[in-house]
Amino acid sequence: MKKVVLTSLFFISILFSCKKDKELQEVQLPDPNVVEEIIYSNPADVKTKEKPFLMNGLAYQYNDLEPYIDAKTMETHYSKHHLGYANKLNTAIKDTEFKTSTIEEILNKVDLNNSFLRNNAGGYYNHNLFFEILSPKKGTKPSNTFGEAIIRDFGSFTSMNTKISEASSALFGSGWVWLIVDNDGKLKVTQTSNQDNPLMSNAIEKGTPILAIDVWEHAYYLKYQNNRAEYIEGLFNIINWEIVSKKYENSLAPKL
Ligand code: MN3
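Output (structure tokens, whole complex):
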């Protein structure tokens, strides 16, 4: 008898739990008017593991360059790729003749067979310049001195930018497009492969870089996929020509 009661209780409890499951549950639908804000990390928190080369920080937040460069790309580029180059550069120069050198001295003197130092020194310098010349500030213009040099060497600001776009589209594989001031003070558009740089001994055109454009796919693939030309077109909206002008003017100052 006891067994029958227990069995009945068991079935009754199953019945109740089934009934419970069949009750309609109210599901909260997302409100289409509420845009969920994604919180990105702070560039100022990105630090190298060691010295001497440090992260320079950014003059903007990761999402400030939207819609031209998306926040996720900026965050990955700065906090993963660039940090990786900086950390590996510090490792590469440890206990070497370069441990107290400036980055420019390293790039000038690096043995091109030393690919670990070559790639990471280049990666460090190139990304510092790239991130520095970008800005959410709209409508910046070249200074008078820089503007005159642009007209002297390219005919116009537009034709210089066309040259930069063409060089970016024409570059095969991964690399960089540069605006440099050569040893005669002339402005030139040039390219380098991988993380090479116009200060290195193998540069086709040697000179002081004043503008760097990263044409590695990691710089644009999330938003633009394989459309590099569209990425470059977008980039022209966020180049800070005031900073590039200062770099041009500094390049003319007599070297000590
Ligand atoms: Mn890059």
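The first strand starts at residue 175 and ends at 181.
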